[in-house]
Amino acid sequence: MSNLEIIQQLLPYHERLEDRDVSVLEMIVLHCTELPTLELAREYGERITLPESQTGVSGHYYVDLDGRVFQYVADNRIARHVIGHNERSIGIEIVNSGRYPLWYHSRHQQCIEPYTDRQIETVRELLTHLKARYPRVVNLARHSDLDTTMIPSEDDPAVPIRRKVDPGPMFPWENISIWWNELNKSFSSE
Questions:
Q1: What CA–CA distance (Å, rounded) separates 135 from 180?
Q2: What is the pLDDT of residues 17-38, one digit of tens each?
């Protein structure tokens, strides 16, 4: 078993998030924060953006630049991290600037910040931890795989851009995807 330390820092509105039975989990979704620091990501996660429930938007887990892992939402609560897939998924947010601060400007759609080696190593450790905890979870997706919505850019509405591009081209998706498939095989052969 891993020595992964998960620092629990539940969001202030955590108790207002809808409960769920973890047996429904079927997917883990990888995101990047599109914010340069964990502190900004925390501030964003604490914002009440959904007035009807007095909650906001966040992932379950956050991987900081130095590889530390923070849990903002318990697995048995529904976090709002990907439209249409929240009830059956766990969201992992990896600190990375992405398109910050001009997320929706047509001339600022390149994600160029590399992920740290420690972040990638920690993502694997966290995925292994979650797979051991929830062996029935076999699907791993990027946010950009699940939200392909095009929107008008803020600086030129005639130019459509992707609403979500994370975790972006600097994330080693192909390697992680192959590794995840091997991890799934190792669990199915036990």
A1: 12
A2: 999 999 999 999 999 999 999 9
Taking the CA atoms of residue 115, residue 121, residue 122 and residue 123 in that order, the dihedral angle to the nearest 10 degrees is 70
Q: Which CATH number characterizes residue 26's domain?
A: 3.40.80.10
Q: Which residue is it, tokens 């609560």? A: 77
Q: Which residues contact 9 (CB under 8 A, 6 or more apart)?
A: 42, 70, 71, 72
Q: Which tens digit of pLDDT belongs to each residue from 131-169?
A: 999 999 999 999 999 999 999 999 999 999 999 999 999
Q: Is 55 left (phi over 0), alpha (psi -120 to 50) or beta?
A: beta
Domain containing 19 equals 6-188
How far lies 124's CA from each of 13, 54, 93, 180, in Å? 29, 33, 13, 8
Q: Which two tokens stand for residue 60?
A: 């379950």
For residue 158, being part of any structural domain is answered with: yes
Strands ordered across the beta sheet of 89-94:
6-8, 69-71, 61-63, 89-94, 27-32, 139-142
Other residues' Cβ atoms within 10 Å of the Cβ of residue 121: 12
